[in-house]
Amino acid sequence: MSRAVRFDRYGGVDVLRVADVDVPVPGPGQVLVRVRAAAINPGEAKIRSGALAQRWPTTFPSGEGSDFAGVVEETGDGVKEFAVGDPVIGFTDNRASHAEFVAVGAANLVRKPPGVSWEAAGSLYVAGATAQAMVRAVSVGQGDTVVVSGAAGGVGSIAVQLAANVGATVIGLASEANRQWLSSHGVIQVSYGAAVADRIRAAAPGGQADAFLDTQGGGYVKLALELGIRPERVDTIVDFEAAAEYGVKTDGNAAAANARVLGELADMIDQRKLEIPIASVYPLAQVQDAYRGLEQGHTHGKIVLTP
User: What is the pLDDT of residues 54-82, one digit of tens each?
Assistant: First the structure.
């Protein structure tokens, strides 16, 4: 037997429990991984609450979790790329990574480079692929000025670094408490609140931003357009109503959800070109507390479970 997070109905964090389950058996082409770290994500909380029931319905009892990193425990027939004992980073589309063991197709895995911590590796897939998709969606490049809302959050903290790495001037909307971290990564911190548009213009070279990445919602799509940014250079992963109204992009995780991108991001961490800030780490048994921390908002970086 092994342990895994389960919930039997939609609701708040109190519906989450850690249950005894059978250890998954890897089928042909699959790999069984003993999980060392698995991040939690806002989308998982929305699925559990029922907020996304029409878009992504749930069959109960349900597991949860997409991100993970761990060690290969067993390989199924036909798997040649990985062997027992290999450290790996991966993802599952079956809501199953918040567990001691997960079985996935070998195509969902990459080897974990030695310079990547377990916590960072287990946080990489959802936030990293989302950030990569957003940066690509608005064609951020050398000489651009890009604004990122939620710049110190799980997705935003990665997006600002990816944009800076390609030579863009990056303005990060975040609280004053995150100024030092953002500055150390080449990002200009701008505080939220009244007159934020004026502060963005003052921070932008020539007073004009070229692209906007919205990881928060709450009016930032409209703000981006008021700043004179063209709709095709605005991407939101939250405000789908505004996207439909104004014709901006909504590229997120699905647009970069593959092992190749995962490997590229892991290599960046190994080469110290990318940092995954870790806000807190909880044992699997404290999954409810982990999600309570997430719901408080304004988390700098990722929250991680360790089975």
Answer: 888 999 999 999 999 999 999 999 999 99
The dihedrals phi and psi of 172, each to the nearest 5 degrees, come to -110, 120
- Whether the CA torsion 194, 200, 203, 207 is positive or negative: it is negative
- Determine how many CB atoms are found less than 10 A away from the CB of residue 179: 17
Q: pTM for the whole thing? A: 0.95
Question: Considering only the top CATH level, what class is 127-254?
Answer: alpha beta
Total residue count of the chain as it appears in this document:
307
- Taking residue 11's Cβ as centre, other Cβ atoms within 10 Å add up to 12
Supply angle C-alpha 90, 215, 115, rounded to 5.
Answer: 35
Q: How far apart are CA 246 and CA 239, in angstroms?
A: 11
Give 284's DSSP letter.
G
Angle between helical axes of 124-137 and 259-270 (0-180°, round to 10): 100
CA 154 to mean position of chain CA atoms: 6
State which CATH number among 3.60.130.10, 3.90.180.10, 3.40.50.720, 3.40.50.620 fits the domain covering 2-123+276-306.
3.90.180.10
User: Per mean pLDDT, which range of 98-102, 170-174, 250-254 is the poorest?
Assistant: 250-254
